[in-house]
Amino acid sequence: MYSSTFVAAALLAIAAADVGASISAVQSNVELLDSLVKGWSSADGLPKALIIQESFAPLSEAVLALQSAVPSSVSASEAQTLVGELSSLVGAIQGLLGDLSSKAADFNAVGAGSIVGGDIKALVGPSGQIASSAVSAIPSDADCAVYSSATALVNNLAGAFKSAAGAYSVDAGSFPSVPSCPGGGSGSGSAAASSAAPASSGAAASSAAPASSGAAASSAAASSNGTGPAVATSTLVSTVCPTCTEVAPSNGAAGKAMGLGAAVAGVVAMLL
After folding, report:
1. CA-CA distance, 174 to 161, in Å (whole number)?
2. Residue 154 · residue 114 · CB < 8 Å
3. Cα 231 to the chain's mean position, in Å?
4. What is the rounded CA–CA span in Å between residue 82 and residue 17?
5. Nearest alpha-carbon partner for 150 in 82, 94, 93
C-alpha cells in the first residue's frame, strides 16, 4: 500500500503539469492575438478589427482555465519553475498590451475602441487573481531570487494593464504585493498595485509533501493546442460585441481534462 505522502506528491505533480500546460495555452493565444494586432491598421477598418476581436474569446477561456489551475501550494523548486513560466507569459502579455496601446487611436477611429477596452477590462480581473494565487503559493523556504522574480513579474503585469487600461479609459484592476523574502533578501513588492484577494484553487488536493522538482520542470515543455481546458463558454464576444461570431473552444481541451482524470484514477487504483 502506498502512503498518503506518496499520493499527495503524485497529485501535486499532476497539478504542476496541469498549470504548465495552462500557461502554455494562454501564451500561445496571446502571441496569436498580438500577431493579428500588429498586422492591422486603421485602413483595414472595423470589419477586420472585429475579426481580431473574436480571438479574445479563446484567450479569455485559456486565462480562466489557468486561474483555476494554479496550485494553492508548491515546493521551493516548483515555485522557481512556476514563476519562471509565468514570467515568460507576462512578457508576451506586455507585448500584446503594448501593441494595443500604441494603436488605441486607430481602433478608436474605426469605432472599435470600446470593444478593445471591454476585452482588456474582462481580462484584467482574472490576470490579477492568477498573480495573487501564484504569490500565495510561494513557500517561505523558497530562494530569495524567486521572491525578486515574482516582484518583477507582478510589477510588469500591473504596469502593462495600467498602460493599456489608460489608453482605452477602463479600470486597470488590482494586483498583489509580493512579501519580502523570509531569508532577508529583496523581494518586496511595494511598487506593485494594491493587493487583490487570492483566488482559491482546487488544482492541488493537499499541501502535504511536495512533488519532485523534476516533475514540475518537465511540465514546462508540455505542448499546447492553443486553448485551455473547456471550463468557460465563449461569452466574451457576445458581451462586448453582440454582432461578432463566437469562436468555439477546441476539443483538445477535453483530452487534457480526460488525461488528468485518468492520472488521478491511476493513483487511486494503486491504493486499492
Report:
1. 10
2. no
3. 14
4. 10
5. 82
- Which range marks the domain in which residue 102 is found? 4-271
Provide φ and ψ at 30, rounded to 5°: -60, -45
Q: If you write DSSP's letter for every residue of 141-156 in order, what string do you get?
A: TS-HHHHHHHHHHHHH
Of 193, 201, 153, 200, the closest CA to residue 173 belongs to 193
Assigned C-alpha cell, 33: 492575438
Q: What is the pLDDT along the chain (272 residues), one digit of tens a residue?
A: 444 444 344 444 444 558 999 999 999 999 999 999 999 999 999 999 999 999 999 999 999 999 999 999 999 999 999 999 999 999 999 999 999 999 999 999 999 999 999 999 999 999 999 999 999 999 999 999 999 999 999 999 999 999 999 999 999 999 999 999 987 544 444 333 333 334 333 333 333 334 444 433 333 333 344 444 333 333 333 333 433 434 334 344 334 333 444 443 443 344 44
Number of domains making up the chain = 1
Q: Is 169 left (phi over 0), alpha (psi -120 to 50) or beta?
A: left
Contact 206, 231 (CB under 8 A): no
Q: How far is CA 184 from CA 83, 188, 264, 266, in A?
A: 19, 10, 39, 42
The grid coordinates of residue 102 equal 500604441
Provide the sign of the torsion angle of the four alpha carbons 220, 226, 229, 231, taken in this order: positive
Quote the pTM value: 0.64
Q: What is the dihedral of CA 98, 23, 217, 212, to 10 degrees?
A: 130
- Rounded Cα–Cα distance for residues 271 and 254 (Å): 26
The three three-digit cell numbers of residue 106, written as one number: 486607430
Joined grid coordinates for residue 248: 468555439
